[in-house]
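sry for the spam today, last one i promise. struct tokens for design, 261 residues
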């Protein structure tokens, strides 16, 4: 994407070695999200090179994301892409398709080609929380707060966040967090398994580098195949999973023997 296209999408993007960093870059509105941003994320994720092994997602200006751009709920802004009023006038199937398009980048963060890491400061609200949940791992600053605000606005969380939330914290806690739309502070998020690490805000950048270094230290093929195995494990029986492990190992054996010359 060109610099102008990235700016229009409210995004920044950089690749350093094996690590791609995508930054939501609308700090004036706390990195609120809109359809052009989601389309931009799709283009970035589609265009990632084979060298990329970790995708870091973060927000500019000291906060992760305040979620959906609330302007899209404003009847006065009907006509803008993603406007609730405009979308609600469409046929059911069209609405479902439209939301499916918006969900794409969230689903793409599960791609086994890379490990995705959300770096969360301050607020991860609504679509922001769901974006963080769509990443494989979450590292948070002590000041981070997570909130599934959608039910408070009359909506359901619809950006691929409900499944990873239930998988992370279980059905009952997920329901409690969503139905109350309360803020979950970083320390609680850590104890619930919602985030894997919490550090003081001033140490977040260094902790992110330490994590991405560790994630890229081992064999790329082994890490990719292991991510794919772990992703599918909950859906498989033990016998099916054992078969998947054996099958994945064939490729590993072949690569290792080739490396031995
Ligand atoms: N959409 C559009 N603009 C936003 C959003 C948003 N989601 N969040 C914040 N902004 C704007 C504010 O309107 C304000 O604009 P202004 O400077 O022109 O007045 C600016 O960002 C700063 O916001 P403040 O509220 O002043 O910032 P503060 O740091 O005090 O609070 C917080 C941050 C808690 C995130 C607050 O802005 C907030 O609650 N935002 C709304 C969150 C929300 O309801 N998101 C939708 C969730 S549902 C979903 O995502 C599907």
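last one done:
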């Amino acid at each position: 994407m060109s610099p102008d296209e990235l700016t229009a999408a409210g995004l920044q993007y950089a690749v350093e070695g094996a690590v791609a960093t995508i930054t939501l870059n609308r700090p004036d509105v706390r990195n609120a999200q809109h359809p052009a941003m989601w389309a931009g994320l799709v283009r970035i994720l589609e265009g990632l090179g084979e060298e990329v092994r970790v995708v870091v997602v973060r927000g500019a200006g000291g906060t992760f994301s305040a979620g959906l751009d609330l302007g899209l709920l404003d009847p006065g802004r009907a006509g803008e892409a993603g406007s609730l009023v405009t979308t609600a006038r469409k046929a059911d199937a069209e609405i479902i398709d439209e939301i499916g398009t918006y969900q794409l980048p969230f689903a793409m963060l599960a791609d086994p080609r890379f490990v995705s890491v959300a770096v969360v400061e301050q607020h991860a609200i609504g679509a922001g929380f769901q974006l963080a949940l769509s990443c494989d791992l979450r590292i948070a600053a002590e000041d981070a707060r997570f909130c599934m605000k959608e039910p408070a606005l009359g909506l359901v969380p619809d950006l691929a966040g409900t499944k990873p939330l239930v998988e992370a914290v279980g059905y009952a806690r997920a329901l409690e967090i969503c139905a109350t739309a309360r803020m979950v502070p970083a320390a609680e998020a850590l104890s619930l398994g919602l985030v894997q690490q919490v550090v003081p805000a001033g140490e977040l950048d260094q902790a992110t580098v330490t994590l991405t270094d560790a994630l890229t230290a081992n064999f790329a093929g082994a890490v990719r195949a292991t991510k794919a195995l772990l992703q599918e494990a909950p859906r498989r029986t033990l016998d099916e999973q054992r078969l998947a492990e054996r099958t994945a190992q064939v490729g590993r054996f072949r690569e290792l023997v080739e490396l031995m010359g």
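Residues 13 and 167 are 29 Å apart (CA to CA). ok im logging off now
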